Amino acid sequence: MQAFLIFAIGGFIAQLVDGSLGMAYGVTSTTILLTAGLTPALASASVHLAELGTSVASGVSHWKFGNVDWKIVGMLGVPGGIGAFLGATALSNVATEAAAPWMSTILLALGLYVLLRFAIRPLRRRRLTGVSPKLLAPLGLVAGFMDATGGGGWGPVATPTLLSTGKVEPRKVIGSVDTSEFIIAVAASLGFLIALSDAQLSWLLVGGLLLGGVVAAPLAAYLVRIVPMRIIGVGAGGMIVLTNARTLVNAIDLPSPSPVLVYAVIATAWIALLAYTVRVVVNERREFDNLEEEAAEASQDEEVAEPARG
């Protein structure tokens, strides 16, 4: 029972992050399972089986709050399912750890772009024209493959790429990526169940991750709805940078205490940019409220002046 509660808490935290930022459920959950001693294939299989439930809960929650673009879900999810099935089959036979540093370098660059663009030069609604299927299909295929082989990667690959285009509202990027993850979870789970037919999955751990994720899904979807798009963009960008910097630091095998210093610098810069963005958003809202009040007062003065003229 204690193990179940621990993994339920882990699933809750992972889904809260994933549902709010469009990434990190698989990365967080897989890390927990690997720490518990599961093999990479079993850890990834367990996470994807849990995602069969969490992705539905997350998708329904995002849909209710208007965070889903169904065109993106279909064009991204179907190729993603194909990639996930192939990735699950590959991971069950051979590890793909050598590709992690290269992919992390690309993701870190994308994360930096997203982080700085939303913090310094935010997107405007007139630019939100939608994403071409020519980008969505190959993106889904690559993201699905990476997700299955890495125990997580659907969000970290798909979300920053779509955010970096500047053509889709951040909350709809997050909601659509989270919703399409159900297709990836089904395809990856099918691939793992076929390839790992003799392996013993821990349904207790799967159930814990599933329960925690389902509980967190509505809260995460609500946060996306009410939090301004600039803050979501900076939060997502910082998460991408920090997560992939960790992968690169581990690959380089820096001597202690260098890794801690790297993480501290990144975290400090991220927090500073986030604080700056929050302050800008608050000031913009205050100015907007003041303009509305002035407009309302001017309207009342005109209404009072008209009878006086009569």
Automatic annotation (TrEMBL):
The record's InterPro entries line, in alphabetical order, gives:
TM_pro_TauE-like (IPR002781), TSUP/Inactive_protease-like (IPR051598)
Parts of the chain that traverse the membrane: 72-94, 100-120, 173-195, 201-224, 231-249, 261-282
Membrane topology field: Multi-pass membrane protein
This protein's UniProt keywords: Cell membrane, Membrane, Transmembrane, Transmembrane helix
Which compartment or compartments is the protein found in? Cell membrane; Membrane
Chief place of localization? membrane
Q: Which Pfam families match?
A: TauE
Q: Which family does it belong to?
A: Belongs to the 4-toluene sulfonate uptake permease (TSUP) (TC 2.A.102) family.
**Name recorded for this polypeptide:** Probable membrane transporter protein
